[in-house]
Amino acid sequence: MGVERSALLYEGKSKRVFATSDPDLVILEFKDDATAFNGVKHALISDKGRINCALSAYLFDRVREAGVDSHMVEKISDTELLCRNVEIVPVEVVVRNFVAGSLAKRYGLEEGGRLARPLVEFFYKSDDLNDPLMGWDVPVILGWTRDWEMAFMKEQALQVNVILCAFWDDLGIDLVDYKLEFGRRPGGALVLADEITPDGCRLWEKGTGRKLDKDVFRRDLGDLSATYHEVYQRVFGAELGA
Ligand code: UDP
């Protein structure tokens, strides 16, 4: 492609974003860092960057085939995706198929029950405020999003859900919940952005309920690197190379 990586634009907890020689393109680099509880817990997880980069690229391709556009252009190295530059909408869109995590906690529910239909929730993307839950009107009235954007994000999230549920289901895994982010293109169109990886999803093995996602790290349930290697193996049918 001949796109040169240039200045570091942003460093997050698990990714870095670099400018490139083309102002319309950025490079997303996946790091091995894992954090939980808003950065309070931190560790380096061997191969996480490579695994999440490969999974994200693969899953963005699957959702695009099914008609949902994203910021991704292509995978350009083991840990890097070339992406279209977007302005991230400060709303975390969470889709849930089962009761888990903050939904269970908020309403005093046991984790594990399947929801009658997929639930879409919106959280304000703010580390300082610990990502508070928002009703639909809040980000619109506060000027962070527009009504059509909220409707679009919900509709796209539900479309992504159909694709991803079927995908994980075929691999013997229940997609419990996950977080999506969207970005604005110049001109205002919204596209799916950020990443789709087990860092931002709950994946439970069917039958056993064994966790195959970042909860293994959050809840000290075992070796996160081995877990991510297992997810990679299930998705690609082969071990991650050296
Ligand atoms: N999630 C995420 N980033 C966040 C918050 C949530 O990726 O800042 C993901 C999380 O991994 C889970 C889903 O969104 O798959 C729902 O998370 P929940 O609201 O239950 O919060 P948690 O209890 O996981 O913090």
Q: Helix-strand pattern, N to C?
A: EEEEEHEEEEHEEHHEEEHH
Catalogue the unreliable spans.
none
| The CATH homology group name of the largest domain | ATP-grasp fold, B domain
Q: What fraction, in percent, of the residue positions are helical? A: 25-40%
What number of structural domains do the residues give?
Answer: 2
Gyration radius, in Å: 17 Å
Number of strands: 14
How does the overall form come out from the CA principal axes?
A: globular
Supply the helix-strand structural class: alpha+beta
| Biggest β-sheet strands, sense, barrel | 7 strands, antiparallel
Mean pLDDT: 97
Distance between the ends:
25 Å
* Helix run count: 6
CATH architecture of the largest domain: 2-Layer Sandwich
Return the CATH topology of the largest domain. D-amino Acid Aminotransferase, Chain A, domain 1
Q: Determine and state the CATH class of the largest domain.
A: Alpha Beta
Small-molecule binders: uridine-5'-diphosphate
Strand content: 25-35%
Protein model, in words:
There is one protein chain. With 242 residues, the protein is an alpha+beta fold. The protein has two domains: 5-84, Phosphorylase Kinase, domain 1 (2-Layer Sandwich); 87-223, ATP-grasp fold, B domain (D-amino Acid Aminotransferase, Chain A, domain 1, 2-Layer Sandwich). The chain has six helices and 14 strands. The chain has helices spanning 48-65, 101-107, 137-141, 147-170, 215-218, 224-236, and strands at residues 5-11, 15-20, 25-30, 33-36, 41-44, 72-75, 80-84, 87-88, 91-98, 114-124, 133-134, 173-184, 190-193, 201-205. Strands 8, 9, 10, 11, 12, 13 and 14 form a seven-stranded antiparallel β-sheet that branches. Strands 1-2-3-7-6 form a five-stranded antiparallel β-sheet. Strands 4-5 form a two-stranded antiparallel sheet. β4 (33-36) and β5 form a beta hairpin. α1 runs parallel beside α6 (224-236). The longest helix has 24 residues, at 147-170. The protein starts with a strand and ends in a 6-residue tail after the last helix. The model has no long low-confidence stretch (mean pLDDT 97). Uridine-5'-diphosphate binds next to β9, α2, β12 and β14.
